[in-house]
Amino acid sequence: MLLKIAIFLVIGILIFGLDLAFSKFKDDKLIYVSEEEIYSLMNSWALQVGRNPNPDEAKGVIDNLIEEEILYREALRLGLDANDQIIKRRLAQKLMFLKQESRGNKLTELEISEFYNNNLDKYLVPEQYDFTHVFFAKDDNGLARAQMAKALLEKSQEIKGDVFFLGKNFTNRSLNELRKDFGVNFSSAFEKLKLNEWTGPIESSYGSHLIKLVRLQAARTPTLDEIKPRVMIDLDLERKDSVLSSYLKELKEDYEVIISRGSKQIYNE
Predict the structure, then answer these.
(1) Quick check: helix, strand or coil at residue 216?
(2) 50 pLDDT higher than 50
(3) Which of 158, 186, 192, 218 has the greatest number of CB atoms lying within 10 Å of its CB?
């Protein structure tokens, strides 16, 4: 009697296992295309082409989706995703995005205000200069011509320089921007310029310049109302990074990392 019960129990377990296996096999071979997916595909197609697809085009779009899903599943079945750096990077980026977007509540006015006050240096607007200049190209005896032009200016005579591809008049330029556009020597000269006086020649990476400073705006920190959208973006990014950092820290506690002996020196540098 006990033997019969044991046999029936074994047969029952085998049937249950086979049912699970075949059920999984059937699920792996089942592709369900939802209305939401079709609507999204048709909408994307219309945005790219500029009109709604006709019936044949719509069928082609859906066929492409089905074929892509079949190829995707077969690639997974064959293990083609293993050791593929591009796939790893894409999946990691997707998980990072999902975790960052799960950060919770919206920003409050108090949080925005506190973040702004704690990061005032970040929003400091440096000194800004408005100026005009006369340019003399270095490959055409520019320095000597600039010196002659400066002497004419001092006698209130008109002068003419060379065409400068960045223009003649500049507004709201910081020293950092001037350094990038013209070089260190040129930007350094602005710290000593006097308003509405011609100065020079001053050398840049392009040639020689006679410069007249038209306006100087002192450095200042904008009020929160002036830059609130920017502050909100910065705070939101900080919260996203914080959520992701905490999530990674928790995950790392569950992993053991072994670095090959030959790479340890590189990692520790």
Answers:
(1) strand
(2) yes
(3) 186
Domain ranges of the chain: 1-26, 31-81, 83-120+224-269, 125-217
Contact 96, 244 (CB under 8 A): yes
- How many CA atoms lie within 13 Å of 91's alpha carbon, on the beta-carbon side? 8
Correct CATH for 125-217 of 3.40.50.1000, 3.30.450.20, 3.10.50.40, 3.40.50.300: 3.10.50.40
DSSP H or E segment with residue 220: none
Tell me which H or E stretch contains 209: strand 207-217
Label residue 216 by pLDDT band (50, 70, 90): very high
Q: At what angle do helices 55-77 and 35-49 cross, to 10 degrees?
A: 120
Nearest to 208 by CA among 136, 152, 153: 136
For residue 161, give the 3-state DSSP assignment: coil
